[in-house]
Design a protein that fits this description.
10-stranded mixed sheet; Rossmann fold; about 20% strand; binds 6-O-phosphono-alpha-D-glucopyranose; about 475 residues
Length: about 475
């Protein structure tokens, strides 16, 4: 039985089948996985996650009795994983219906409120599935946990799990951590009252509830006070006879680990290809999941405005935009992907010449290529309309070999760590973003170097191991 457990919807790896039907492993994507990956092994943690596709479900079945899969040697530092083979319909309703279409939209303020959200019979079915799904995690964690073990539960998908787990295992020390923003109370109130109540009390059953920056913690405290009538004193919430500490743990990157990784042959080979592509031009880079909150379309519009207003950059700059597929089961994401592709096509039509491709949009996920691109970037654009932290910004400033200038949204949690060195923008302000791109491209070398020092200090201040260790220590591990 484990003394330390982690739980998240997406685990550190996913499975796929090769041409001959054999299973192979890939690294999971997203900020949460990047954050926890390096830290899990130190604690000999068991990481409970959902089997997200058919190959994952097959791997979970083939793991046999314990359900645990040994993933040592897959960039994962040997954490032990238990993948839950949840029934596909339950998973679909919980993950797509509630977690992605409702909770993600809520915390990132993504609803077009003229038409969404709608809470009707369909949502009631999805919510019932969400309850079952969170219960499956609680059951697995209860089985895996040694007496008085520490359990660290991550993200909006598992908002109800702390209370369910507390109910069956009152001996455990339970923490919940959100890698996303938290919605302000007036937006959170879009939810039906009973749902809002269950989500808040689900989390408050944990001993600690954690966020990436004070702004998101304050929003959660506001929701507890306004919607539950809970007593909030400093960072402590008292409600229904229980007390919960609300803590802030900023997450940085593991600079030494990243530098080791970029010295590997797969990254170096991709860096050579990109170097050829960029030539002696300046490189503006962005790397995102294709996700509305990442604001890719406005980011590309800002690049178009730069090229319109500063023709001196024609032929002297290349914008590499990596926009990896995400959540394609949802029509909103498919439409957004099409909008990104359309904007990219318009830029090409307007500016491309036989000897200059102003924009290269890549949509297939290639982690070593992302790392290679950081090495070569002169400017990194991170312009989300809202983001819990944004680790792309932090990885980029650490790895750039060219003292990159960072254009950073004031709505990303990362701004509290990097704001001193970045060019901070309002993500809705396309003209302001275009102006920041010009400033970044024109920045004198000494200023770039001075800003870079601040950026690297901010990006590396709380590496993942320290970040998780801080949370586990708070829980008494
Ligand atoms: C963010 C969230 C994670 C999520 C990831 C990818 O990092 O905080 O919880 O796993 O995005 O999203 P996905 O829906 O593909 O798991």
């Amino acid at each position: 039985m484990a003394r330390v457990l982690l739980a998240s919807n997406r685990g550190p790896v996913s499975f796929a089948e090769d041409g001959s039907g054999d299973l192979f492993l890939r690294r999971g994507s997203g900020g949460l996985v990047s954050g926890l990956m390096g830290a899990a092994s130190d604690n000999e943690a068991v990481w409970v996650c959902a089997a997200l596709g058919d190959a994952d479900r097959r791997a979970a079945r083939e793991a046999g009795g314990s359900g645990r899969i040994d993933i040592a040697g897959y960039d994962t530092d040997g954490a032990r994983v238990r993948m839950l083979g949840i029934d596909p319909m339950t998973l679909h309703r919980a993950y797509n219906g509630v977690a992605n279409r409702t909770l993600w939209f809520l915390h990132h303020l993504l609803f077009n409120t003229a038409t969404a959200p709608v809470f009707d019979e369909r949502f009631a079915r999805e919510w019932a599935a969400f309850v079952d799904y969170d219960e499956a995690f609680a059951v697995a964690l209860a089985e895996e946990a040694a007496p008085c073990a520490v359990v660290s539960i991550h993200d909006y998908h598992l908002s109800l799990t702390p209370r369910m787990l507390r109910h069956v295992r009152p001996d455990l020390r339970i923490g919940h951590f959100s890698h996303t923003p938290w919605a302000p109370a007036m937006y959170f109130q879009l939810l039906p009252d009973s749902i809002a109540h269950d989500l808040l009390t689900g989390l408050l059953a944990a001993d600690t509830v954690g966020f990436l920056c004070q702004r998101w913690a304050d929003a959660f405290l506001e929701c507890c006070a306004v919607l539950l009538g809970a007593r909030v004193e400093g960072d402590t919430v008292s409600h229904g006879g229980g007390r919960t500490r609300v803590r802030v743990h900023s997450l940085g990157v593991d600079a030494a680990g990243l530098r080791r990784r970029v010295a590997q042959p797969d990254v170096l080979a991709r860096a050579a290809v990109l170097r050829e592509l960029v030539g002696d031009r300046k490189l503006i880079l962005r790397i995102d999941r294709t996700e509305m909150s990442k604001n890719i379309v406005r980011g590309l519009a800002a690049y178009r405005e730069l090229l319109r207003s500063h023709p001196e950059w024609h032929g002297r700059v290349v914008h590499l935009a990596f926009a990896y597929p995400s959540r394609h089961d949802l029509p909103e994401y498919r439409e957004y992907t099409a909008a990104v592709q359309q904007m990219a096509g318009e830029i090409e039509d307007e500016f491309a010449t036989p000897s200059w491709a102003p924009l290269v949009l890549e949509v297939n996920d290639d982690y070593p290529r992302s790392l290679a691109a950081y090495l070569l970037a002169d400017v990194l654009v991170v312009n989300p309309i809202r983001d819990g932290m944004n680790l792309v910004a932090k990885e980029g400033v650490v790895l750039s070999e060219r003292d990159l200038a960072l254009v950073l949204s004031r709505e990303a949690g990362a701004v509290y760590d990097l704001g001193g060195g970045a060019l901070v923008i309002n993500p809705y302000d396309v003209s302001g973003t275009a102006a920041a791109l010009h400033t970044a491209l024109s920045m004198p070398a000494e200023e770039r170097a001075a800003r870079r020092r601040l950026l690297v200090a901010g990006a590396t201040a709380s590496p993942p191991r320290q970040w998780l260790a801080g949370q586990l220590a708070e829980l008494g591990a």
